[in-house]
Amino acid sequence: MHCGLGRDAGRRPCHASVCGAFGGGRGVAAPSCGGHAPAVRVSFTNRRLGMKFRTALFAFLLSLVVAMSAPPASADWSTVTASPMTLVCYEKVDAYGGLYLMRNAIANNTGLTQTMRTEVYGPNGLNFAADTVAAPGALLGGQAPYVSIYWNDMFHMRLNGAQILQVYAGDTPWYLNHCLVRYTGNWTIDRALRFGLSQLDGPYVGGASPYRFGAPGNGGTYQQLDKYGNPLQKKYLSPLGARGYDCSGLVTAMYRNAGLYFPDAWTSSAAMYGAPFVSITAAQLRPGDLIVKPNAHVAIYLGDGNGDGVASVLEATPSSPNVPEGQVFVKGVVISPATKYLTASGAPIAGNGYVLRRVPGV
Asked: Distance (Å, rounded) from C-alpha 352 to C-alpha 355?
């Protein structure tokens, strides 16, 4: 098996430690890296703690770190080191700007003072550095820096001077966990989720456009967009290099990237409502499952990654306009609260027409 974090097998070789550390699962054995040469851009170590201890510790982190203006820490954060626990996750914060916020924290479960250092490097050298000094037993959130794809930034994390993490901004969705996402440990699902998250802020392309599966627009301009069959009044330009999706096109592209190729007959929300897509209950709902309204919309369930009690969905929808550099775009691929579609128990809101489905084969 190839590492589940490189963008394409053979094109982005993976480091052996990457597979085990950020495979997305809890207690999942590291897959083989398929004989590729080690990558120099990512290096870190990881050892999994027992789930019972980790759950209790992260719950304590949640209550303390939030008060320090740091993010809530949950079991879905990337655990970079085991003792002390050094944690990092990312949030996409700027449409088309390629900007990520790198949340980080340290749980010092040792008897010695520990220093976590976060750094951001650009082509001209060090742009940001911050130290978080944790006394024995301390649970601290560190200052969260930004990294930019446009400026070719690289994010480093050090523990007591030793480098434990190095990742380029452009590789962030593939090597780190998103703060809002609960990963499953299922390689196919997590690979699909990572691909979808790497497409955040891609423009919405509606109707039967050939570009709705992620192909770049022709000449930089997409077709007139449809919102559930109602034509919008403007044509929207595609940002350079951006790839557009509609709701079912995003689902299709995500699972295609994970090795599941949907026949053409499966690629609409109407098709995803019926067989062979599997009907599931709220109790069975897990990340990667679909929230479907036939002939209308489909969203991908992400779970509650940051432990705030509110689950999220990934979806391609034209409801989020964005206006960078004087041009009008539609920020189509977004993370939204699952409460748009589901009750707190995970069941579809009564009368909204949505159902829960699972992709066959996962």
From this structure: 9
Residues 198 and 321 grouped into a single domain: yes
pLDDT category at 47 given cuts 50, 70, 90 is very low
0.85 exceeded by pTM: no
Query: Which of these three, 175, 202, 220, is where a domain ends?
Result: 175
Which residues have CB under 8 Å from 118's CB, separation 6+?
102, 104, 128, 129, 130, 132, 142, 143, 145, 155, 156, 157, 158
Please state, in angstroms and as integers, the Cα–Cα distance from residue 41 to each residue in 50, 154, 195, following that order: 29, 9, 19
User: Is 204 in contact with 317 (CB distance < 8 Å)?
Assistant: yes
Instruction: Summarize pLDDT for 22-43 with one digit per residue, the tens.
Output: 233 222 222 222 222 222 233 3
Task: Look up the domain containing 304 and give its range.
Answer: 187-358
Closest CA to 234 of 139, 317, 327: 327
Q: Are residues 118 and 257 in the same domain?
A: no
